[in-house]
Amino acid sequence: MFGSKSVTSTNPALSKGMDRLTETWDTARGAAAPRLEAARVAVAPRLAAAREAVGPLVDEASTRMTPLIERVGPAVDTARTRLRDDVVPAVTAAVENSAPVRAEAKERAGAALLALRGQQRKVRRWPIALGCLVAGAAAGIAAGAINRRMATPVTPTPFPAPTPTPTPTTTQEEVVAGTTAPYPAGQSSSTTG
Asked: Which residue range is the domain that position 22 belongs to?
């Protein structure tokens, strides 16, 4: 099985055990053979006497039963045929159809027995929770892999450099006065005074 060598030739302890078993068997057979022969010789006359005493009874029973067997034979064949063709398929179908009902009855009987003892059936929810956790992790890994494959690489664009704001040009007179006029040159407001 494991090569060309047998198991007994590769394991010396097993080989030694097999040799001892063979020696023990030979010794037991040699010791029991004369006793078995003596028992055979002692029982032979009794068996012959029993055969001679029972022989005529068996012959008489056989002659009485032969007509009965011949009458019952066709009925037995018909019963055997009906059993094979009608009953066996019906029983097989009944067993198959009643499997869910039998399973429910077994479960209910177990629950009733626990209720009589005052115990409750242990409900293990951690396998379901663990299965949901593993399924969620697998879905997350798959979604991440698909998202990475489908996404185009995004290169970051730098922020635009701020543009300098133009400073309003002021005349020398406005700087001296310290104010700038909100109106175009040459117009004055009515509130100034």
From this structure: 1-71
**Would 51 be classed as within a structural domain?**
yes
pLDDT at 130 over 90: yes
pLDDT at residue number 71: 87
Categorize the per-residue pLDDT at 11 as very low, low, confident or very high, splitting at 50, 70 and 90: confident
CA distances from 95 to 6, 87, 89, 92 (A): 48, 12, 10, 5
Residue 49 within a domain = yes
CA-CA distance, 73 to 67, in Å (whole number)? 10
Cα diameter, the chain:
165
Least Cα distance to 112 among 104, 187, 162 occurs for 104
Q: What is the pTM of this model?
A: 0.29
Neighbours of 181 (CB within 10 A): 15
Range list of β-strands (E), 44-193: none
Does residue 48 lie in a domain region? yes
Within a domain: residue 158?
no
Residue 88 contacts residue 80 (beta carbons within 8 Å) = no
- Residue 180 φ then ψ, to 5°: -115, 145
pLDDT in tens, 28-49: 888 888 988 899 899 899 888 8
Q: In total, how many domains does the chain have?
A: 1
Distance CA 162, CA 142 (A): 43
pLDDT tens digits along 137-161: 999 999 998 888 887 777 778 888 8
